[in-house]
Amino acid sequence: MSAINTGNIHISARNAGVGMLALLLALTACSPSTPPPGGTSQPATSSSAPSPSPATSTAAPSASATASATVPADSDETAPPQSGDKVIASTVALDWTWPGPGQPFNATHENPVPLSPPPAAPLPTLYAIGAGMHPADTPPYDQLSFRFQGGFPSYNVEFVPELIADASGLPVPMPGTGAILKVVFHGAQAHTEDGTASSITSAPAPSIGYPALTSYAPAGDFEGVLTYGIGVGRPTGTVPETKVRVYEVEKIEGGQHLYVVAVQLDASYWK
After folding, report:
1. Does residue 162 lie within any of the structural domains?
2. CA 146/CA 59 separation, integer angstroms
3. Of 119 and 4, more confident
């Protein structure tokens, strides 16, 4: 009911009693009823929030594609949930597809260089790596997530016949792997600003052992180029091509402002 504008109500002395009674009845009718215990308001992460829409390979994720309810289950968080953890933005950068050899998926993000003055790192810096299985989703998938501080780096994703180390040019061993998905981040680093230590605070063991995601291995961290190989469980020549999806999620996790590139492998063929 609309609020009553008392500035437009005039009551004469002759019918003041009748007017006052009408006013009291109107105010009573507009008063909100007492809410039931627990309230009825919807949480901020209501399922009515818009789903993230696929992004083009050269566009940064839209800040409007936000809602933690639309983000895949985050079982690969690197620390227990804390008060204040929240998703700021979530975007599907690459929907399910097969980035086969010679068909890389490329995502471009523009960041100022340096991001901030010393002693902060000048580039997006890899803070943590997480891994998780999601067997109840449709389709089921295994995930390896790269958590950066400072911003999203540009990157490309492509299946390759072997993983080559950037510095030596030699193959990087990935035992127990049937196929290799190579992820190369551009304008990023995984070391401290003085170059004396790794910036990664937590990461799973290299031999992960999931059905689709068997392992991962670093292959380079030099001059703003950061390279990883992700091992897939079976050779692509004996099963249908393993499809890949990539989520970009900006979030607060464990008190850190993180930019997550989550690489997901379709695990349908291993069910």
Report:
1. yes
2. 19
3. 119
